[in-house]
Predict the 3D structure of the following.
Amino acid sequence: MRNNSPVKNGPLDGLRVIDWTMWQFGPVSTMMLADMGAEVIKVESLDGDHGRQFGRIGGIISDLPEGVNAYFEGMNRQKLGIALNLKSADGLEVMYKLVAKSDIFVENFRKGVAENLGLSYQDLTRYNEDIIYASASGYGPEGPDSGKPAFALTAEARAGALWWFGPDDDTPYQLDIADQIAGMMLSYGIIGAVVARERFGFGQRVDISHLGSMIWARGMQNGISFLTGKEFERFDRQSVGQILWNYYRCKDGEWIAFSMGQDRYWAPFCRALGRTDLVDDPRFSTMDARYENRVELVQLLDGIFASKSSDEWVRILTGNEEVIWERVQRTLDLPTDPQVVANSYVVDFDHPVLGPTKWTQTPVTYSKTPLSTRKMAPAHGENTEDILIDLLDYTWDDLVALKDKGVIL
């Protein structure tokens, strides 16, 4: 009979993950696994994940008090931390012992790095034949550019993603989502491999790339382009292909967004705006007519929305279930959004250095294995001694010798 009592730390409780990743793509994925209850041991070099050294992001200073870094912290909470010199035989021996007692190994280094160090999938199966080995790459495991270095922007460029948004002026526009999208796909691939191992009894290698993830993220639009042979129109709100799939600026400078497609929404939309005269206007009464006259119609609607503040429009639109709309919020609006709070998409956490703070939570809800935020990101090598002694049976004398050899901090 199955035990239906809740699992304290989530659906992956009891799995151990070795996280040999840096920057964002890999750490996002392993943090998601940690959110789901897995024990994640982050293995860093003696000089640390380079993300710890990211002092400024998008104009925002990332360094916080007592050596805490916002960039690193936001992608590495929940994890334990160990620092190892993997270019030494003793450091590799520690890693092999960790692999022998783990379920999943995740790496995001350029092709050839793991192989040259003795940390390839084939290498690790000698110590754990059932290991799930997950690689985060730029361009995938095969092909002429499989070893080419990549970061988020170059992956978005290769995947055609820089043409998704912006005016049609032959200027690409940066998205900054490739790492997060690819990290989610990596988690998806790992969990699939966990299920396969439970069902069929074997581990395997999983590879997720920036390139493949970004192509997948634009799946519907790419599919249309592939089938028609035409590039999907990029989004430009002043000349948008679908008038009712757009956003409009209000009198106070705030925006209201609408997400409607078919002709059946046009009349309710016009009624909500108090412009029933537009319902049967031949310039706008059908989807094709609105497309042909889209520039004129956007200008007209801009004038209508600019006549009232966003609060006024919210009062007018609230309760109207015939119109699909929403305020255009900013990042710092989210922690107080009652819907966000009710679903724990942003959670409170009493950080030992920063105090009461807000954190994003992996947005998956389970009825019996709920997710939780339990721990801040580790200080560099924070749990090295505990892991070596409690998990791997090293002695204190062993640790002293490893420190003297420059294997651990």
Observations:
- Residues 164 and 234 are 5 Å apart (CA to CA).
- Residues 16-217+344-404 form a domain with the Rossmann fold fold (CATH 3.40.50.10540).
- The radius of gyration is 25 Å.
- The first helix runs from residue 25 to 35.
